[in-house]
């Protein structure tokens, strides 16, 4: 994959935009850049691609609104600046996208939203619904409530987590350098640009961690970009690192301007299923009848109607094993109900669930969250 074809073919793209691009000299939003970027993102959307933006800039904009200048801030001051700046940030995004008839929406996440599975599922459902409705989510860390210990730390990593959450194919990190170099290009004239990284080897990590480590303003240098790329790759997502400070950075990548693409080994769907099948300890089992076993084997969702028994204690979002009546494992998946509610609805048709529980979360295990057990 090269950056040009990767971006053109992506179904879902996450673009991380840093404070240095968004906030101009005097601490106000960089409206001209935003307008161009919005036109660029709207162009992708118009040709059927879904776009999510991970946007920094809340603290930088809030500093100005609260008159904090450039001095070091205490944690409560930083949180206050983020609160005052986030609304200004959203206003700037709204104004940029408005001429294109694109609706954007604010999504503020804390680390637990992508690390605690139940919250992860919840955040994912919201993001999916926004994308299904043609909205461009503008994501930032919820800086107003997070403290240093519980932060993502930087928006490169947040971008990678969002890419995983959304099952994106490409994460674009807009940077102040046009990709990865063998050494820091500002200090070493012999530095060579690396257009493509097939795998994140220790050598590549060393390049980013050594001479290139400071290659970036804001919170994240090249080392954090590579760390983000590693997270994205584990989720089956390619990372494109390119220069952000040009009017239409996505169009520039497509026109073949310099960028580095870091390729994943798997597709997002395969990476997700491998995670379900391999990394999670199942908390219970769902025993299914022959009809449901056949449906699951064909890649269909597991409906409550086909479940004959619920075993173990699990919460909504926990991993469960799906077994046939002989006890053979067919698949693993994430339950959409906890064990107690699952037991109450097993054997019921989907239409009957709401009357019993007072709510419905759809199938017991959705096809997207089911990984078939590999036949020996
Ligand atoms: N979330 C921070 C902000 O909006 C920025 C963090 C970062 O850029 O890495 O100000």
Observed structural traits:
Archaeosine Trna-guanine Transglycosylase, Chain: A, domain 4, single chain, 376 residues, alpha/beta, 15 helices, Carbamate kinase
Task: Please describe what this structure looks like.
The chain is 40% helix and 19% strand. The chain has 376 residues and is α/β, with parallel strands linked by helices. The chain has two domains: 3-268, 3-Layer(aba) Sandwich (Carbamate kinase); 280-372, Roll (Archaeosine Trna-guanine Transglycosylase, Chain: A, domain 4), CATH 2.30.130. A hairpin with a 5-residue loop joins strand 13 and strand 14 (329-334). The longest helix is centred in the first third of the chain and has 23 residues, at 75-97. Residues 211-219 have low confidence and may be disordered. The chain binds glutamic acid (GLU). Glutamic acid binds at residues 18-19, 56-60, 140-141, 143, 154-155, 218-220.
Quick recap of the structure?
With 376 residues, the chain is of the alpha/beta class. The protein is 40% helix and 19% strand.
What does the secondary structure layout of this molecule look like, with pairings?
Blueprint: H1 3-9, E1 12-17, H2 19-22, H3 31-46, E2 50-55, H4 58-65, H5 75-97, E3 104-109, H6 111-115, H7 117-132, E4 136-141, H8 155-166, E5 170-175, E6 180-181, E7 193-194, E8 196-197, H9 202-209, H10 222-234, E9 238-243, H11 249-254, E10 259-262, H12 268-278, E11 284-288, H13 290-297, E12 307-312, E13 319-323, E14 329-334, H14 339-345, H15 350-357, E15 370-372
Parallel strand pairs: 1-2, 1-5, 2-4, 3-4, 5-9, 8-10, 11-13
Antiparallel strand pairs: 6-7, 9-10, 11-12, 13-14, 14-15
Helix pairs in contact: 3-5, 4-5, 8-10
